[in-house]
Write a structure and sequence with these properties.
There is one protein chain. It is elongated and about 50 Å long. With 73 residues, it is an all-alpha fold.
Length: 73
Amino acid sequence: MIPLRRTCKQAAALLIAREDRRIALSDAVALRLHLLACKACPRFERQLLTMRNAIQQWRNYSNEEGPETPQQS
């Protein structure tokens, strides 16, 4: 039997890992259960989402502007 209980430290590691790759189904289930029972970890999950969205917006803004080049006369 696979244990489904995770500590906050383990949950945080899974949240970060989930940003880069797919996590195992057992880890995803355990993470979801932890997030339902914990008050702090869902806040950390929202902070990660906020940072991901901010970085994406920054990348899109940087790509739209293009590199600045000085005008040559």
